[in-house]
Design brief:
alpha+beta; 34% helix
Length: 99
């Protein structure tokens, strides 16, 4: 959970040129928005995140914005379910070690 709150998802942007992939730039998407929206979301579906992010290219002058990208994302399962599964798995492992 701490990883999702602090670490970004790094996305590289490529274009196809003469059957070769050419790296254009990159952007970082913070995943904490998914967690924060889920905590306040009431419906049974996980919340949908839809945002724009700047795409950066690294050049001679440092990072340069070359455009923006629109993205949508949603978790397949709620984080709460995954956390409960992980905690139950840890309890079972602790019980088997103790026995």
């Amino acid at each position: 959970m701490a990883y999702l709150q602090k670490q970004p998802l790094k996305m590289d942007i490529y274009i196809s040129r003469n059957n070769a992939a050419v790296h254009m730039g990159h952007c970082e998407i913070m995943l904490r928005d998914l967690i924060e929206r889920e905590a306040t979301h009431i419906s049974s579906k996980t919340p949908l995140i839809q945002k724009f992010e700047n795409v950066f290219a690294t050049g001679v002058n440092g990072k340069v914005i070359i455009g923006t990208i629109k993205y949508k994302m949603r978790l397949r399962k709620p984080i709460k379910e995954s956390m409960r599964y992980y905690q139950e798995k840890q309890e079972i492992q602790n019980m088997t070690r103790a026995a």
